[in-house]
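User: My instructor asked us to take a sequence, write out its structure as tokens, and then describe one feature of it. I'm not sure where to start. Here is the sequence I was given:
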Amino acid sequence: MGDVHPSLPLGEAPQLVPAAPVAHAAQLYTQEREIAAAAAAFLADGLREYESAVVIGSLPRWSMLLKSLGALDVDSRAAVQRGALRFFGARTVLGACMGHGVPDRLVFNESISGLLAQARLSGTALRVYSELSDVLWRDGQREGALALESFWNSLDAPAFALLCACPLDSLDAAAYDGGMQRVCAAHTHFAPAGDCRAFDDAVRQAIEDVLEPRLVRMLQSLSAAHRPAAAMPAGQASLFWLKANMPRTADRVLSRIREAAPLAVK
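Assistant: Let's start with the prediction itself. The structure tokens for your sequence are:
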């Protein structure tokens, strides 16, 4: 990711926090405050109901996450003291899941299953926020990150809700080279960076600016009928359809969004 990004407004909480106990959600982000807000909202919903929560992340983000939980009136210190909220270092956990320098399915299953069993309080639901694949993405290990996401889906463990951080930008045409599509296919929920409602509005306006009204209606119908299986905002589904079927138009739409959005320097 570069230093300058088009900035869509940030909501107080992500709008696609998974509710089902076996949900596996991907939260895209371009700014640190976006992923901190998303993770905090996801964990806060569970901690308020006295569920167990696990954070597999980096030390610098722990501070931001705790601050975001506090802003949501969640007493994270009390949650830690009663064992409901546990933190694990992403690189330490990742190191235990590797074999010959790449993620190993059997080692991952053994390590993560043991970690989750240790963290889950008796009789409670469990939420997990993970930056494991995020670390691999940012280290340039794309195939390792994608493999790890598939490992989560075949993990031999009781049901839990999982939110994964992913440093991709839905407004970057280059991200649609197959990698983002594979991330989407591995998840039950797929949320673009920023506020989902603002994202939908920006995509809809750009499409209306680029296409004739007749084609706009056609696109809305086709993208709704052929949207990916993962739950996502309508605007994101439209972008996936455009990139697959009208790639030049998709690039024009993405360019229009980036031109219209205010710029924010990280």
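For the description part of your assignment, you could build on this observation: Residues 28 and 168 are 6 Å apart (CA to CA). Try explaining in your own words what that tells you about the chain.
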